[in-house]
Every structure is written in C-alpha cells, then in structure tokens.
Amino acid sequence: MKKPRVCILRTDGTNCDRETAYAFERAGGEPHLVHVNQLRAGEKKLTEYQILVIPGGFSYGDDVHSGKILAVELTSFLKEQLQEFVDRGKPVLGICNGFQVLVRTGLLPAARIGDIKTTLMHNNSGRFECRWVYLRVENTSCIFTRGLAGRLLHFQAAHGEGKFYTDSQNLSKIEEGRQVVFRYATSNGEPATVYPDNPNGSLNAIAGICDPSGRVLGLMPHPERFVDLVQHPNWRRQQFREPHGLPIFRNAVTFAQEM
Amino acid sequence: MAVVEIRVANHPYLTDPAGEEVLYEIKHALGIDAVQKVRTAKVYRFEGIDESAARLLAEKLLAEAVFQDYTINAPIIKDAPVVVEVAYKPGVMNPEAASLMKAARDLGIEGLVAADSSREYGFYGQDINSQHIDVILERLLVNATVERVVTEKPATLLISGRPGQTEIIPLRGMSDAELMELSRDRLFLNLEEMKTIQQYFRNIGRDPTDCEIETLAQTWSEHCGHKTFKARLLVEGRVKEPLLKRLQEATFAANHPLVLSAFVDNSGVMEFYDGWAICGKVETHNSPSAIEPYGGAMTGSGGVFRDVMGTGQGARVIASTDMFCFAPPDTPREEIPPGCLSPHYLLRRVVAGVRDYGNRMGIPTNNGSVHFHRDFRAKPSVIVGAYGMLPVERCRKGQPRPGDLAVVIGGRTGRDGIHGATFSSGEMTHRTTEVNASAVQIGHPIEEKRVADAILAASEAGLVRAITDCGAGGFSSALGEMGEKTGVRVWLERAPLKYQGLRPWEIWLSESQERMIIAVSPGNLERLLEICRGLNVEATVLAEFTSDRRLVVTYENEIVCDLDMEFLHHGLPKRVLPARWQQPALKEPQLPIPDALEDIYCRVMSHLNVCSKEPIVRMYDHGVQGSCSLAPYGGVEQDGPNDAVVLTPLLGSPAAVIISHGLNPVLNQIDPYYGSLWAATEAVSNAVAVGANPGELVLIDNFIWPFPDEESLGALDRAVDACVDFVRATGMPFISGKDSLSSTYRGKDGEVIKIPPVLCVSVFGRLPDVKRTISSDFKGTGNLIVLVGQRNLSEMAGSVYYDLYGYLGKNLPRIDLKTVTRVWKGIFRAIQEGKILACHDISEGGLAAALAEMCFGGGVGAELNVPAGERPDYFLFNETSGCFLLEMSPRENPGKVLAGLPHVVLGQTRDNPVIEIKQEGHHLCRIALSTLKRSWKEPMERIFGTPGEAREVG
C-alpha cells in the first residue's frame, strides 16, 4: 500500500522533528519536514499531505505562552488550509509543544480555529521536568489509539507547561464527549492525582485529548521517544511486546491509508 | 511615541507557580516569614501603537481568558501591600522581545517600533517591611549585573546613540606605569607584553587605534592565547617543554587509529561508523557564572554547542554534559567573600541556565556531576560539554581561500560581553562585579537553534568552506584566526547591530552570542543566503579573505585596524615560567574503627559529593532526539544512577556513543599527579562500567586552576605529567582540551582564596551494538556481587569518609595504570560475552555507596561479607577509582570470567530490601534500603524542593 505523506511542521525552536519523522518511518509513513515558512510562501501546501504533525520543542522560545507565537502565526496565515485539512477528516497530531499549539489555535478540543477553550499552564512544580510516566488509554473514538483502550503505556514527559486546565463547564463537555484519550496513571492504572505520577497537576489527570471526531489528538508526553525498545530506560530489565509509542503512529498511518 | 503597558496575571483563584516558587525561596533560602503570599504578573510594553491595538494584542496574544486577566495602562495586582517590577537593564537583550514583534506583525498590527516584557511581583503579608523587600530583591530577584527594579514607566524603549569614534592611543610615548594603567581592568596584559606592543608601533612609526590595542589584547589574552600552556616551564632547575606541547605529543605518539582531528579544530573528532564521525568539546564558563550564574551558564552552553556546530564543515550537536563545583549550599553568608554570590543561589541559577539553553536547543543533557568544596566559595567551576555528529568527509577543519567571503549568521551584535576574553583571564577581585558587568549577557537558545539548522542545511549542500563560532573575542578572534594564513579585509559597518551607539572596536570585540562565521566561495553565496532566509536566520557578508596576510578592518572607509597577521599571532613574547610544587604538610589521621556502621553509612550517602543529584537531572531533557539508550537514572523506581550515557544517535542503527567524565578536585589538593590519574581513571571507568571498549575511547581535558603562580603552576605541571603518563600507559589520546587558569580570588583585605585545582577528564567513544551495554541496577536476587580491581585500603586520603571526620589525609589512592588497563579490558570482554548483569564503578563514597546505588536501582537488598583481616570501614569507603562492583548470575564462575584480574566475591543480592554487612559471621551493619535512600536523596531535594509538588491536584 502507498505510504501516506506526513507533514512534520517545523519552525524556529522545533526540536523533536527528527525523531518524530523516524517514528512515522518505523510505522510505515513517509515523513517530510516542512518549515512553516514554506507553507506561508506557498512552496508547499497542506493538501499534499495525509497526516499533519506538530512535533515537540520550544517554538519561538515558548515566549508569552508555550506554543502561542506559532499558534498566532498559523491562525493568521494558514487558517483556511488548516481548517480544510481538519474538516476533510485527515489526522492531526500534536505532541508536547504541538499539543500546546493545537490548544492555542482552538483545534483542540473543538476542532475550530480561534475557539480557545482550554489551556496548558505552567506545571505545579513551577519548572521543566523530564521523567517517564504511565498513561492510561481511555475508551474513545480516537483513531490514534484504536485497539489500545484500557492499556497502560509508559512514555517520557518532558515539559514545563503541561498542566491541563479549563473551566468546569468545558471540562464536563470534554469528559462527556469522551475526548480524554490519555490520563496520567499510577503503576496500577489508577488516574494519578499526585506528583510525580501526575507530573504537572493536570485536571482529572488529563494528559491528552482529541477533538469530537477523534482525528485530532494532542498529548504532552512523547510517544515518539519510545518506538524502539532501547529507548526505554529499563529495556535491560523489562520485557516489552513492542515499544509503546509505535501503535499510535501505526494507527495514524493505517487510518490515512484507508481514507 | 507613547509606550502602552499591558499587564497579565492568572485569575486570582488559580495557582501561580512562579509566585509560589518565589515564596518558597523567600521562606527557605532567605528565612523570611513575614511574606505570606506572592503573586506574579507579566508586564508587556509596546511603543508606537494605540490602545485599541494593545487590546487586540492582549486578547489574541498575551492573555488567555481561560485562566488569565489583563489590564491596559493600569495596575493588575491591586491588593498587595508591596508591588515590585523587575526588568532587564536597557541594552541587555530580552529574548522575548523579538517574539512579541513577530506575533504583533503576524496579527497585522502596524506601527510597532519596540516591545519589551518584564515581571511584577506582589508581596502579601501584614508584617512586611522595606528591609525584607530589599533582601528579597537583592538576593533573589534582581541580579544587578543584568536586571533592575522599574520604578516609573519608561518614556521610550529604544536605545539611541550615535556611533562612537575610533581613538588613537598615544602608546609610543607611554611610560611603564602608564602602560600598566592602560592594561589594568581592560587589557589584562603584563608589562613585557605591553612593551612588545609598544615596540611594534614604534617600529612602524605610528600609534595604535583603540581597536588595534584591543585586538592584540584579546588575541594575546590567556583565555584565547593559552600563554601559560604554551610557555616553557622551569621546574627545579630543569626546563620542561610547554604543557600543551606535552599533551599534544603524547596524543601524537599514541597514534590512535580512530582519531580524525585532534587539537586543531573547535572540537576533537573521532571516527564513528557508516561514514560518520563524532566530535566532542568541553568548555568552562567560570568567570561569567560567578557574577551572573544564569546568563553565564547559558552562554557557556551556547558557546560549547557552537564549538561543535563549528567543527569541520558543520556538525549536529547530539549531547550536552555539565560538571559543576560549588561551595556547600549552606555556607554561612558571612563566609562568602565580598563581591561573590551565595553558592545556594549559584547552584540553582547555573542549573537553570544549563537547563534553559539545552532544553530549548533540543540537546539532551544526560551526563554530569556536582562537586562541593568550601574553597569554591569565591569562584565556582562551571564546565559544560557538547558532542556532535558529522560526516567523515566533512570532518576536517576548513581553510578559507583568498576571495572567499566571510558571512556572519545568527544574532546581532550589541555591547554584550565586551572584554569577556580578557576578563576571563584575570583574577577575580571584589571589584570584578562592578567593573566587568558588560562581560555577561543572556543567551538566546532559539536563535542558536535556527543557526544550527541553517549550518546543517548549508553543510549538507556543500556550501561551507570553513566555519567557526564567534566566542570569546567575537569577530576579532573568529576572523583573526580564520584569516591567519591568508589575510582578511573586514567592513565593520556591515555588521547588523542590536542598537546604535557602539564604537567600532566594540563591534569588533563584542561577544554577543549566537553568531557564527561561515567562509563561502562567492559562487555559493546566494544559496547560503537563501538557506538562511528560509530559516529566519540573518546573514551578512562581513569580510573577504585576501592574500596579504594582514588584518585590515575599516568602518565606513576609515581604517580602524591594520595589523600584520604574523605579529598578531606570533608576536606574543614566549615565556619561561618558574614552577615549583610543594607537597603540602598533611598528616594521616588515626581513626578508631566504628562499632556500628549504620550511622556512618547514612552520613556517607548524604554527603554532598555522594548524594543523589536526581532533582537536577530531572530538569534537563535527556530524551530529546530519541537517542538516549542508557538514561542518567534507571531501575525500578528510576532513581538508580548510571555511570555513563549511551546514545544511539543514528535512529534505527544500534551504533552507540558512550560519554562519561571524572574529576575529584580535593585529591589535587593533596597531590595533583595522583589526583589527575584518579580523574582520568574514573572517567574511563565510568565508560567501561556500561560496556565501552577501552580501545575505542578518546579523552578531553579541562584544567581549571588557580592563577598560575609558581606553586599552582608546579601543581599544573604535575597534573599534565599525569595526563601524559596516562596516555602512554593506556593508549587513549586527549583530542581536545581547555585550560582556565584564573580561579583565584583576591579580596581587598588581602584575603586570597584558591580553588582546589580541577582536572575534569571527559571521555567519549563508540560501540557497534547498544545491546551489549549494561546498567548499574541489580537485576535479580540470589545473584553474586563481585568486586573487581586493585585497592590499597590504607589509601583513604581525600575520601568522603575522612571528610566526615574533618580530615583530608595524606595517603591518597595511587592508581596502578597497568592493572587498571587490564581490568578495563577484562570487564569489557565479560560484558560483551553477556556475563555481567549489572556493573557500577566505585568512586566517591566507595564500595558502600556503589552497592547502595545498585540496590536502589534494582529494588533489592544485599548481603555482603568483608574479607577477614580487612578494616571494615576502609573496605567499604575507600575511593580508589578503576574498581567495580559487578552482579553475576550464580551459574557463572567469576574465577573463570575474571581470570587474571584482581577480584573477590563479596556476597549476594537479596529479596529483603536491606543491606546486611558481616565480617567472619560478625554483624557490622544492617540497614533498610529506604533509610539509606532517604539520606541519599534528602540534600538535593532540600535545595531543589518545589512548592507545588506535594499538593493534590485541583
């Protein structure tokens, strides 16, 4: 089957682009690193791609708010292209800084650009932290986690602004709409309410959400850092059937191929 | 034009982590209880726009209604008795300003000419007085070197100024006293050097410009010229070759087949696999970090990354390391010399600087260490390393050709860091902070990331003839060195400036960060500029390489510098320096053998040089790039420390890079020869412990020394002798290095503080298959615990154990290089054969600390027998490097696996999470792992404790 073309969107300060590209390669996709300037100049168009990923990093230094400057740029110059991409049901993934960007464009949770309902605040600890955390996969219609519901995944979180926050009305909407895809969990799989299992103080232990269609996903931890077994800190003492990040990318590739 | 102010704060009912962090510091670091609460707000200022545009900015960019409020031209923290705003001083680059300008442009806002941001603090509490606020500001929130308290709204955000003039210095007619007055605080040259310069200008029949004098001072500075390392030494009546020459000749003689480039480029290069090479460089940034630790550490990281980026025809940075030496964080305030910052503040701010630069650049920081000794209270040692990857075919230093153009890419030039090179070469005094404020700046990692991306693209396109970074000495150093063999013609007025008002020599010498120079053939220029444009990197043709071997700099057609390259680079008088090391008068203590070891075991584990540094490591992104295959901490609870980092930088390939280091300053106080052997042995042992092949490792040296008076130079001479002997005995070459010989403090009352001399040896190497590396955590129960290596247990001097009793001692570990070389080979072979389940190198805290850490990682206990006749405390706490603890399956025969190596089976791992130590059936120690772990974790958790972490979510 033809490999779906994956647009890995870069800009100043993006720094998880290479490993994200590698994750898609491992999953059978055809990743392309695309600079936002190339989209703005019209050298490349989003319509050329089947999957869009905004990878991790510190876009524009995370000045003002994490991901904000890039979100403003996307909303100002690429609104139509982006909205069209989403409306056509193509998968969009935001990891870490990419999640922050998606939230700040409004693509999450409502899939509507300019409609900002949730936020990712500074961690309760007030600082950047890097540690492996457990994520419980919730039962949702998210296309990225097909076949994973109920699983406990181990990913690295590495961020300073990852505390998911919204008002109670929007929170219940997201919960009732089954848009919570990942929750920080204890090693027993219970939603994590305290540090460090919940590394940032996120409401309802929310680590990742999707839009109502399940095709736009954002999460703070890094699935692309666990697509080879040796990337896990304890591969020398633990057995894994397969690296936990891989199925997420494979699901996206499969979905795009079937579209 | 009017300035509009927008203030943004979290909704009052939400948490404010920044405010809580400040409150925590006020209570814990300053001990002020009058402050009950701190709230923070961001202040943004914009010049050239009206209020309606400001409202648009507030709503679309600055404040998110979900969790924040904003005000325009009005206070936002209204209910706090004291509100203080802290901002960068004018002229200190605020990295956020450019993003504000960009986002405003993206939102279609017109007319904006300048933007700035700062932070406001509201302090709550009935009993706060102005003294409290002064202490909080002075010791916590405002570093007067770069920051200030804003008391009134600024009329403009623009820094204005007219370009300054070039001055002629009447050097030819100066007396010796006048020459030295000119040198002091500015040039840091000695009288002989000043007179050499004077003679040069007398010979050519004119006086120099300020630019020429400054260029010579920079090139001849200790920092850039390494005068001490290049001088011949007079030791006990015997003339010895220069230190640098001895190191380089040892490397040359070792003739290591994997070395591709040693000591000639910005970093040392060794062969990797599949057409790739790896390179490494380790730098120090002690002087700037001592006066502004955050900015100093940031620019230290930024500088060493650029060294790697500027290797060959450009390299990709794949790892960062950090090694620090501080005074104990609880050193009483009154013991900190005037003009120096508290070690608690230094430690936290240096860590924050390394964190913010590496994380933002996307470079994993996954190897490092922190050492504490009282004599670092005046000047810390801040060491940062970087490692990179580049194709073998582009790994050799490039040479510009006449007609090639020099393009400066990256950041703009400002007044930052003027005199950084000369300043770093001077001793620190109580005047340092006042006189040299401009020597520090705030780094801009995103600018450097852009530059890194541009260099890789240009390098892959084959456009780079030669490349170097603008580090110490700025354009002067970069272009002066690049053009040494050809000559170079510089148009200084072309340099993009942050603001007007710089004199030509300031532009020339400025050490503004994030700038690189690429030499490009004229035919490739347009493609290079296009790559830079596409990545938002400013690029400007600044100079042309010539063939006249002259350094000619003009500023708007006025010649501001015209020097002969020969004089510039080779005119520095060669020195012969007297060196005499004197063995310090030290004694061995007579310690009683303790009855119970539990208490001393805990105290060893909580010693600052043994305790867990995990809270620091957690702030560094060690997983970015997806390459980390042995994390700094691993094991069941992810808190068991590993000895080295293993990276697989070519994703999908098992080929691995191993990086580690070693240092032990206190041993150098006893004897720098054996202290240095210890450091090098420790560095290599750390790598070997995870599976490195000792035949495929290379070394980097960093000497951080007190000012080289006769005695310190004698110590340095011995340290270099040790390095040379190490290379000869092991065959491992040094391929890069750096000396920083200014770590002496002179107070105005005559107080002199010398740091314990530091030799930090870094090691890197390659391994074809990551699967044949191991970690330190015990893998199971009932497994054998084996000690490998040769120790002389009476060699306890410099140990943590002695330190706990207040002794230094005299009899320090004397590493036997022959034995240790055999041990390394044997361990490498055993790991390759899969015979070793876990391995940990023995260092500070001795065998007992290594054992505890392996237990922490494995979540298992251990039962250990101290061999009959050995003194148990020395057996457990001796710190001879080059020794290892191994875990082996009981099915293996250690006698066979480790045949020919000194080894002893000490005991077994146990299910019960307790460490039990016996000697001839007699109980010496029985202690719960949890107790040991608490002792081991507590010290750094106290320093880096955070306010939010214990709180429930919600």
TrEMBL record, chain A:
The gene is purQ. Keywords: ATP-binding, Cytoplasm, Glutamine amidotransferase, Hydrolase, Ligase, Nucleotide-binding, Purine biosynthesis. It is found in: Cytoplasm. This is Phosphoribosylformylglycinamidine synthase subunit PurQ. One of its GO terms (molecular function) is phosphoribosylformylglycinamidine synthase activity. Signal peptide: none annotated. The keyword Oxidoreductase does not apply. One of its GO terms (cellular component) is cytoplasm. Part of the FGAM synthase complex composed of 1 PurL, 1 PurQ and 2 PurS subunits. Part of the phosphoribosylformylglycinamidine synthase complex involved in the purines biosynthetic pathway. Catalyzes the ATP-dependent conversion of formylglycinamide ribonucleotide (FGAR) and glutamine to yield formylglycinamidine ribonucleotide (FGAM) and glutamate. The FGAM synthase complex is composed of three subunits. PurQ produces an ammonia molecule by converting glutamine to glutamate. PurL transfers the ammonia molecule to FGAR to form FGAM in an ATP-dependent manner. Its EC number is 6.3.5.3, 3.5.1.2.
From TrEMBL, chain B:
Its EC number is 6.3.5.3. ATP binds at K281, D701, G737. Its main location: cytoplasm. Residues 265-389, 664-746 form the PurM-like N-terminal domain. InterPro entries: PRibForGlyAmidine_synth_PurL, PurL_linker, PurM-like_C_dom, PurM-like_C_sf, PurM-like_N, PurM-like_N_sf, PurS, PurS-like_sf. Pathway: Purine metabolism; IMP biosynthesis via de novo pathway; 5-amino-1-(5-phospho-D-ribosyl)imidazole from N(2)-formyl-N(1)-(5-phospho-D-ribosyl)glycinamide: step 1/2. The keyword Transport does not apply. GO terms for molecular function: ATP binding; magnesium ion binding; phosphoribosylformylglycinamidine synthase activity. GO terms for cellular component: cytoplasm. It is found in: Cytoplasm. Mg(2+) 2 binds at D307, D469. Transmembrane segments: none annotated. It comes from the Bacteria. Residues 401-555, 781-899 form the PurM-like C-terminal domain. Keywords: ATP-binding, Cytoplasm, Ligase, Magnesium, Metal-binding, Nucleotide-binding, Purine biosynthesis. Residues 186-227 form the Phosphoribosylformylglycinamidine synthase linker domain. Mg(2+) 1 binds at E283. It is an enzyme of class 6 (ligase). One of its GO terms (biological process) is 'de novo' IMP biosynthetic process. Substrate binds at R306, Q441, E511, S512, Q513, S740. NCBIfam families: FGAM_synth_II. Part of the phosphoribosylformylglycinamidine synthase complex involved in the purines biosynthetic pathway. Catalyzes the ATP-dependent conversion of formylglycinamide ribonucleotide (FGAR) and glutamine to yield formylglycinamidine ribonucleotide (FGAM) and glutamate. The FGAM synthase complex is composed of three subunits. PurQ produces an ammonia molecule by converting glutamine to glutamate. PurL transfers the ammonia molecule to FGAR to form FGAM in an ATP-dependent manner. Monomer. Part of the FGAM synthase complex composed of 1 PurL, 1 PurQ and 2 PurS subunits. Belongs to the FGAMS family. This is Phosphoribosylformylglycinamidine synthase subunit PurL. The lineage of its organism: Bacteria, Bacillati, Bacillota, Clostridia, Eubacteriales.
